[in-house]
Amino acid sequence: MTKISLITSNNCTTYTKCSAHTNKQLSFKQGRDTFRRGQESCIDIKLRGKYPANILSNLSDTTMKLDGVKINSFEGFLQSLKTNDDKTQREFCLMNGLDAKKASRGLARSKRDIILYWGGNKFKNGSDDFKSLMHRANEARKKTSGTFILDGIEVASMDGLLQALKVSDSNMQKKLCMLTSAEAKKASKNIKAKYAPRTLYWQGKYFSRDSKEYQRLLKRAYKARYKQDDAFRNALLSTDEKPLKHTIGKTDINETILTTDEFISNLQTLRKNGQRFNILKFIKTIVSGK
Q1: Are residues 80 and 182 in the same domain?
Q2: What is the mean pLDDT of residues 14-34?
Q3: Backbone dihedral region of 191: left (phi > 0), alpha (psi from -120 to 50 degrees) or beta?
Q4: Which of 88, 135, 151, 280 counts the highest number of beta carbons within 10 A?
Q5: Looking at the structure, do residues 104 and 125 belong to the same domain, yes or no?
Q6: Is the domain of 158 the same as that of 224?
């Protein structure tokens, strides 16, 4: 009798065929094909241009509006500035980041082109008018990119919060927390955090990188985002039972403020609790007859 057994690799499920009397593995070609199918069933959060990974990533941003134009990804907005055609601009703005970047290759522009467009106006890259446009775009993104409150502090992006944990000054932490993901990524280059041993900070308190207290802080942060950020919560629950992975993250706590295991485990815990809550809510609705 033949049965199918499961093999788990990198949080993804693949299959190997076995008989009742042997443990014969699939041929190389069959194994490769089944592995690929298993990979396709996974959600790799490094693919930030695709839903729901574009929301679940710590570098995520959600739908925003600027000058009445709906923008589904900040990358889409940036690529739209390269064309002066209003219809094409709006199409770029509705794309996810990955698709927008690919589509931009079809635009007839060279690296020397410095004229950008928005709302019927021309902007020279680096000019004061362009900087003003980018400031307005970033402000719009802050209002719609999943802002949440943690211990009374407004957090505009999860990456901003993670960068804030590297500095001990409370006022500087608040400023870092209000940065968008792109701004936080730039700011991180100027933050000299010490690794191995490493101390992290949050509102006057000190945390050892390998402490339980720090793990509890991470859990509270993700829980706060899950409760307050509808887009993040819906994206996470939309993954159903699919395995989650993050193939570009680091695994050593001495090299990163958030390992792939810490990131994925927090998402999985939130998803499991959310699914359980929805089931109980559904049962309660049936019982009550409403």
Answers
A1: no
A2: 42
A3: beta
A4: 88
A5: yes
A6: yes
- Which of 76, 39, 57 is closest to 248 using CA atoms? 57
Per the structure, the count of domains in the chain is 3
CA distance 39 to 13: 8
- Give the CATH number, domain containing residue 174: 1.10.357.40
Asked if 208 and 224 sit in the same domain, the reply is yes
d(CA 218, CA 240): 23
* 267 vs 12, higher pLDDT: 267
Residues 191 and 251 in one domain: yes
Which pLDDT does position 38 carry in this prediction?
A: 46
Asked whether 168 and 108 are in contact (CB, 8 A), the reply is: no
Phi first, then psi: what are they for 203, rounded to 5°?
45, 55
User: Which of 18-22, 27-31, 59-63, 285-289 ranks highest by mean pLDDT?
Assistant: 285-289
Confidence of residue 232 (pLDDT cuts 50, 70, 90): confident
Number of neighbours of residue 252 by Cβ within 10 angstroms: 9
Is the same domain home to 171 and 257?
A: yes
Cis peptide before 243 (omega within 30 of 0): no
Structural domain boundaries, residue 5: 1-25+37-41
Residues in the chain: 290
Contact indicator for 15, 5 with CB cutoff of 8 Å: yes
pLDDT exceeds 50 at position 119: yes
Q: How far is CA 226 from CA 47, 216, 261, 277, in A?
A: 20, 15, 18, 13
Q: Is residue 83 part of a domain?
A: yes
- The C-alpha atoms of residue 46 and residue 61 are separated, in whole angstroms, by 14
